């Protein structure tokens, strides 16, 4: 079975965004977990150093991984990289769309927002998920086999005045997930979304300690999640144990927001 982790490390927003892809954070943890589960993993990322580190770690543990560097805002780059993945590993059975970013330090109230930044946020958080999925969907339909796992956010369920574009994009991921799940269910292909809450990544390391403590105190379970917590959900949705679950949105957030 071949797993493909489609993700991106963005070094800009284009500059100093700190967004994590397959080489870091949730993407890295998911790639390592799927490799431990026995998958052959392709990791797509924009950061060459990070992606090589992940692939080397998988190889050192006895797994098989393929590194692919691509900008997932570039449709042709996506098409080309998936062609290389299938040539190296074979058909993609599981796609993890771990892509997304808010405007971060450029965030403003919607009424002051820059449409160019909206385009970036929607492009990297929603359109890239759709384009990556388009690369694998026909093969999955032909084989009547596949798992598509989209990374949304708890922000899709509630909003903040500075992240309206991000909330809209991640809510769009949920709409895409549900509509596609219905269309693909007759082909025995599942499509589900994971909605992380606060997760300890590199971006969080830049925050003051007291701010992190305050964020943790607002979570009913009393602590911030780790990338491995999200990777466990990815592993479940990629497994045979989730074969009768499709079109669902799983919040992994310590109980901060519930549906």
How many strands appear in the DSSP assignment? Answer: 7
What is the CATH superfamily?
NAD(P)-binding Rossmann-like Domain
Strand line-up across the major sheet: 3-2-1-4-5-6-7
Average per-residue pLDDT, rounded, comes to 88
Roughly how many Å apart are the termini?
33 Å
Task: Write structural notes for this entry.
It is a single chain. This protein is of the alpha/beta class and 259 residues long. It has a single domain, classed as NAD(P)-binding Rossmann-like Domain (Rossmann fold, 3-Layer(aba) Sandwich). It is 43% helix and 16% strand. It contains 7 helices and 7 strands; from the N terminus they run βαβαβαβαβαβααβ. It has a 7-stranded parallel sheet with strand order 3-2-1-4-5-6-7, with helices on both faces. Strand 5 (146-151), helix 5 and strand 6 form a beta-alpha-beta unit. Helix 1 (25-36) runs parallel beside helix 2, helix 1 (25-36) crosses helix 7 (227-238) and helix 3 (75-89) runs parallel beside helix 4 (115-143). The protein is globular and about 45 Å long. 46% of the residues are buried. Mean pLDDT is 88; it is low at 7-21.
């Amino acid at each position: 079975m071949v797993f493909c982790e489609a993700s991106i490390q963005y070094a800009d927003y284009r500059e100093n965004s700190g967004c994590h892809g397959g080489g870091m954070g949730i993407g890295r943890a998911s790639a390592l977990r799927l490799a431990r589960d026995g998958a052959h993993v392709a990791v797509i990322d924009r950061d060459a150093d990070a992606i090589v580190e992940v692939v080397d770690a998988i190889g050192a543990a006895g797994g098989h991984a393929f590194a692919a560097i691509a900008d997932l805002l570039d449709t042709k780059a996506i098409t080309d990289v998936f062609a290389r993945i299938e040539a190296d590993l074979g058909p993609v059975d599981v796609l993890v769309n771990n892509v997304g970013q808010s405007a971060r330090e450029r965030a403003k109230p919607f009424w002051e927002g820059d449409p160019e930044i909206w385009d970036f946020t929607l492009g990297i958080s929603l359109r890239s998920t759709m384009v990556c999925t388009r690369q694998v969907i026909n093969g999955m339909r032909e084989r009547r086999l596949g798992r598509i796992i989209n990374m949304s956010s708890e922000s899709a369920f509630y909003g903040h005045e500075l992240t309206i574009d991000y909330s809209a994009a991640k809510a769009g991921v949920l709409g895409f997930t549900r509509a596609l799940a219905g269309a693909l269910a007759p082909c025995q292909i599942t499509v589900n979304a994971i909605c992380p809450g606060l997760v300890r990544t590199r971006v969080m390391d830049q925050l003051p300690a007291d701010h992190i403590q305050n964020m943790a105190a607002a979570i009913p379970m009393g602590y911030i999640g780790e990338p491995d917590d999200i990777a466990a959900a990815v592993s479940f949705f990629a497994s045979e144990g989730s074969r009768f679950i499709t079109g669902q949105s799983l919040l992994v957030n310590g109980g901060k927001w519930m549906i």
